[in-house]
């Protein structure tokens, strides 16, 4: 079950934390993994780690907000791995200059960051791989989102929440357009992870019913399921992976 041999995955923002966990988990199930990150060294490190443990991986550093770069990279993946990307995990979602601040204190120059990486990042990546998936009659799109998409908070993340809500809507519609082609599109909405820094983090952890924050080892297997052959009847859904902190 959940054998991904013969498939090629692109995981964005996979140079650390959740994205690295996703890349490792997909590779462990047999997928060839294109490890993306804005920071080339991070992508290289995770790619080498996968290769060293017997998997197939290549580093593809690029900025998901740059459509030309995304297209060039997916072309390179197909050339080097000999197969088009048929599993896309858009995980990059926190801009490099991200900082929490109440909306009234945010300069308009900072409005675009969360929207660009989440929404335009998803559009760029999907547009680069969707034709290949639909023509091939098989594909899996997994969008990484956050509980911030549907629950308001006073933690200064309004634009991040807006961007995540937007991308969830985008994926919901894609699921309907792509379903007849054997391509599913789902969202995995994460709760707070161990790498989240902040004074309130411990307080939040104590309120999570399972009494701990999420880890890359929680996220990877959930993505493996969504990417699998076995999940072919699951599409257009938002799976909440959050230790029970928000129930649906
Ligand atoms: N950390 C949390 O508590 C938490 C909670 C809920 C949801 N999420 C979501 O999970 C995902 C991963 O979060 P994380 O905390 O592991 O992120 P992270 O910031 O630790 O790692 C993400 C990686 O993305 C890369 N990146 C940044 N901008 C990029 C771009 N433009 N193009 C390509 N790569 C880029 C970064 O270099 C970084 O290595 C995000 O979508 C985030 O919104 C995280």
For this entry, what is the oligomeric state of its chains? single chain
The CATH architecture designation is: 3-Layer(aba) Sandwich
Low-confidence stretches: none
Q: What's the CATH topology label?
A: Rossmann fold
Count the domains: 1
Mean pLDDT: 96
Order of helices and strands: EHEHEHEHEHEHHE
The helicity comes to 40-55%
Ends apart, CA distance between termini: 27 Å
Q: Any idea what the radius of gyration is?
A: 17 Å
The CATH class assignment is Alpha Beta
CATH superfamily: NAD(P)-binding Rossmann-like Domain
What structural class results from the helix and strand content?
alpha/beta
Q: What's the number of helices? A: 7
Global outline: globular
- Describe the largest sheet: 7 strands, parallel
How many distinct beta strands?
Answer: 7
**Proportion in β-strands:** 5-15%
Question: What does this protein look like?
Answer:
Helix 1 packs across helix 7, helix 3 (67-81) packs parallel to helix 4 (112-136) and helix 4 packs parallel to helix 5. With 248 residues, the protein is α/β, with parallel strands linked by helices. The model has no long low-confidence stretch (mean pLDDT 96). The chain has a seven-stranded parallel β-sheet with strand order 3-2-1-4-5-6-7, sandwiched between helices. It is 42% helix and 15% strand. The protein is built from seven helices and seven strands. It has one domain (8-241): NAD(P)-binding Rossmann-like Domain (Rossmann fold), CATH 3.40.50. The protein has helices at 17-28, 40-52, 67-81, 112-136, 158-178, 201-207, 216-227, and strands at residues 8-11, 32-35, 56-59, 87-90, 139-146, 183-190, 238-241. Bound molecules: nicotinamide-adenine-dinucleotide. Nicotinamide-adenine-dinucleotide (NAD) is lined by residues 12-13, 15-19, 36-39, 42, 63-65, 91-96, 117, 144, 146, 190, 192-193, 195-196.
